[in-house]
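Most newcomers find our protein records easier to grasp once they have seen one. There is nothing in a record beyond a sequence line and a structure line. Getting from the letters to the tokens is the skill we practise here. An example says more than a description, so a record of this kind follows:
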Amino acid sequence: MRKEDCILLFRQWMKSLLPPNNRCMVKKNKSYSAILSAATLVAIIGLGSCKDKYAHIGQTEVLIETSEGDIRVRLYDDTPLHRDNFIRYAREGAFDGVVFNRIVPEMAIQAGGHDTVSVPAEIVYPKHFHKQGALAAAREPDSINPERRSNALQWYIVTGKKHTSAELAELKAVLYEAKVAALFDRLQREHAEEIASLKATDHAAHQALLNQLQVEAEEAIAANPPRPFNEVQKQAYAKIGGAPHLDGEYTVFGEVVEGMPIALRIGRTPVDAKEHPRKIITIKRVTVKE
């Protein structure tokens, strides 16, 4: 809120304290006018409560009007490619009238348009992580998108669930093994012809190659393991929840600042086996607040 607006609201509130029959006497009552002027000065000095409490997040605010209610988000300034991309498509009306096409219970609600355009990854981790309310960009899997480029039109809001420190420690171990397995799969694809040839002609050599690729995958991940969750993450996941298994994998470029109960209600919508909501939930309009 602007300083001028705060002062105006404060003065209106002060006047409202007068009995109805005396409000017309404000201009004639010098004592009250002096008190009002002094109080206004105090309000100017103490305008901390009127400062933009989300300014540290970013300057761009976006209103997402849905058929279930409104959600207000702030876009991060340190992910400028994603911020500007979202602003551009919002102003073009690309999100108006689309539906939430995917809902993963206790994880996220996803929406957006359809396009093959992508945005370079801006994974500012661990500063930005998948706490409840995080706004992030969807993308294709690492197997076909090793650079982790984001889909320009598909985005999601994290609903998530709460996690204890012990659960996060267990998750870290699971993520480690998953990264090893993913890299092993990629190495097998890269050596697909050689593997197929040896499998048909030399069983021992075929197994030796697989063992070699497994060791390479394990050594590579051991040299660059998943980053442990820091105290800020642990506290956030314990207090409000989130989707920690997505951390460091997708670009988080904003967060919900108002309307999180709406997002959580959308997240409780029944879905089918493909995570498509059984109820149509529409985004009426997405407006960038100037």
